[in-house]
Amino acid sequence: MNNMNNYKEVQYIYELSYGYWKSQVLFVAVEMGIFTLIGDKDKSYKIVSKELGTNPRATEMILNTLVSLGFLKKVKGSFRNAPISRRYLIKDIPLYQGDRVHHFHNLWEFWSRLDVAVRTGKPTAFEDVKDDDVDDHRLSDFLKSMHNIGSIQAEEICRKLRIKEYQKLLDLGGGQGTYAVRFAMENPEMMATVYDLPYVIKITRKFICESGLQGRVKTQAGNCLEEDFGKERFDIIFVSNLLHIYNPAEIRKILKKCWYSLMKKGIVVIQEFTLNSAKTRPTFGTLFGVNMLLGTVGGGMYAGGEIKKWLQMAGFSRVKKMTLSLNSNLIIGHR
User: Radius of gyration (Cα) for the chain, nearest Å?
Assistant: First the structure.
């Protein structure tokens, strides 16, 4: 092996080792509201420091680092938002992703105890809480994060699913209701139901009211492992980023309930970060699986072929896969 290969391989190891430095800079910038503060103006580090109430020297350092990471530009000593920050990191813009960044920041504490999870096989972030014990702030952070990614992906999914062809939607584990509301906006003939846990549905109802679609988007509170969703009520069931919370036996149980709740010729649509058959790719999927080790009792990431098999066991046919952006896939089964 020549020296050049040595350098590349060692550099790769180093880049992974200090990768969390970059994450922490982004986390702090979002938490402090640096991008929102700068907005569409140019500001010196002294002005930013004064408005944030931070140390001037330290503020200049983090602003310079944000330039190096591509989030800011520096012009004649002043700082402005780069296009990526203007599109996604200024609060209250339609495609804001800061809540998603904040969610990843929240996970840092649990990832710092990964060694415990590997030794024991038990999660470091899981709590079997009752409705009255739910941390409302953390729940809100999580649902906002899901809304961030949903707001990016919903348009692509509308297009690929031809959502105007369906009339009765169940958004299973639908969280805030991002997809149900977006699908109903796309299809004026659609009646949608968002199904989730009771303490989630409280937030869902508020979001639906704010959308103005409470006449066509309803809610149903329940536990998908313990309760049915109704018999032959829907012509499309959308299950987004839910199955990875559960073990294979639980997933098969959920999919069988979906089959019973669909009308004839209805479809179930699974959105997941699926893995290859060896479960070694894509990298994000394998890492997300570790995240499920940390955060759930029996969840994980599954190969696309496994999900296809479970759909077929539940009675679905003509199972097909569609690739999405942001590491996701759709797996569709027909009743």
Answer: 22
* pLDDT tops 60 at residue 132: no
- Closest C-alpha among 98, 114, 93 to residue 149: 98
What Cα–Cα distance (Å) separates residue 121 from each residue in 111, 155, 294? 14, 38, 9
Q: What is the CATH number of domain 3-88?
A: 1.10.10.10
Domain spans of the chain, in order of start = 3-88, 108-334
Token pair for 143: 């649902």
Average pLDDT, the chain: 95
Give residue 5's pLDDT band: very low, low, confident or very high (50, 70, 90). Answer: confident
Domain 108-334, second-level architecture: 3-Layer(aba) Sandwich (3.40)
Residues 6+ apart with CB under 8 A from 221: 195, 196, 197, 198, 201
Sequence-distant contacts of 120-126: CB under 8 A, at least 24 apart: 121/293, 123/293, 123/294, 123/295, 123/296, 123/297, 124/294, 125/294, 125/295, 126/295, 126/296, 126/297
In the block, residue with structure tokens 């988007």: 217
**What was the pLDDT predicted at 262?**
98
For residue 137, the 8-state DSSP code is: H
Q: At 192, phi and psi to the nearest 5? A: -120, 150
Total-model pTM: 0.92
CA distance 104 to 23: 9
For 189, the token pair is: 């003939």
Q: How confident is the model at residue 127 (pLDDT cuts 50, 70, 90)?
A: low
Model pLDDT for residues 237-254, shown as the tens digit of each residue? 999 999 999 999 999 999
